[in-house]
C-alpha cells in the first residue's frame, strides 16, 4: 500500500487554501491542504506495523511545531506548482530528518521545501496569471500544529488518515 506523512494546518488555513485549490489544483478532491513531511512510500501490512511504532516514538520526542506561512511562491520552471511557503524552522527540519532515518530511511526525491500546494498542473499562461494575482495578496500566518498523520492512498487515488500521532505526548 502507498503511504505518506503530513501535517494538516488549521481549518482556517485549509478553507483559505481550498478556495483557490478547487480552481487551480487537479488534486483538490484527493487530499486536504497539507504540508508533506514524508513523500509517498510503499509498505506491506506487515511492514507498516513497526513503522507505526517508530512514528509513535518520533511523535513523543517531538514538540508541537510552529507553521509560519510567509508568502506565495512557485517551483517554476521545474514544476508549475504554486504554493504557500512555510518557514523551514529547526523543529520542522528535525521532524523531516527523523522521518527519513532509521526504519524510515529513504533519501527524499527532492530537497525539503515546506509548503502547502495551492495550484498545480496549470498551463504556462494560467500559472503565470494565477501566481501574479496571488502574490499581490497577503498570506502571512502563524500557527502551531500538535500532530502529524500517516495517510494511505485508496484505489480511487484519494488519501485518508491511517493513524494520527500527537507531538510531545504518548499516544497508546
Automatic annotation (TrEMBL):
Keywords: Hydrolase. Belongs to the 2H phosphoesterase superfamily. YjcG family. This is Putative phosphoesterase P9271_18195. It comes from the Bacteria. It comes from Metabacillus fastidiosus. The lineage of its organism: Bacteria, Bacillati, Bacillota, Bacilli, Bacillales. Coiled coil: none annotated. A motif (HXTX 1) lies at residues 34-37. HAMAP family: 2H_phosphoesterase_YjcG.
Amino acid at each position: 500500500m502507498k503511504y505518506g506523512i503530513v501535517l494538516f494546518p488549521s481549518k482556517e488555513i485549509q478553507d483559505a487554501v481550498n478556495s483557490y485549490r478547487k480552481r487551480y489544483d487537479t488534486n483538490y478532491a484527493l487530499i486536504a491542504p497539507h504540508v508533506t513531511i514524508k513523500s509517498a512510500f510503499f509498505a506491506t501490512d506487515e511492514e507498516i506495523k513497526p513503522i507505526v511504532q517508530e512514528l509513535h516514538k518520533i511523535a513523543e520526542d517531538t514538540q508541537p511545531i510552529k507553521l509560519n506561512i510567509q508568502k506565495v511562491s512557485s517551483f517554476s520552471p521545474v514544476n508549475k506548482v504554486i504554493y504557500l511557503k512555510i518557514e523551514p524552522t529547526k523543529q520542522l527540519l528535525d521532524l523531516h530528518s527523523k522521518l527519513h532515518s532509521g526504519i524510515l530511511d529513504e533519501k527524499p526525491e527532492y530537497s525539503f521545501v515546506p509548503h502547502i500546494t495551492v495550484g498545480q498542473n496549470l498551463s504556462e499562461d494560467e500559472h503565470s496569471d494565477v501566481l501574479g494575482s496571488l502574490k499581490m495578496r497577503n498570506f502571512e500566518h502563524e500557527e502551531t500544529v500538535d500532530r502529524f498523520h500517516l495517510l494511505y492512498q485508496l484505489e480511487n487515488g484519494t488519501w485518508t488518515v491511517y493513524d494520527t500521532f500527537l507531538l510531545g505526548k504518548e499516544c497508546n
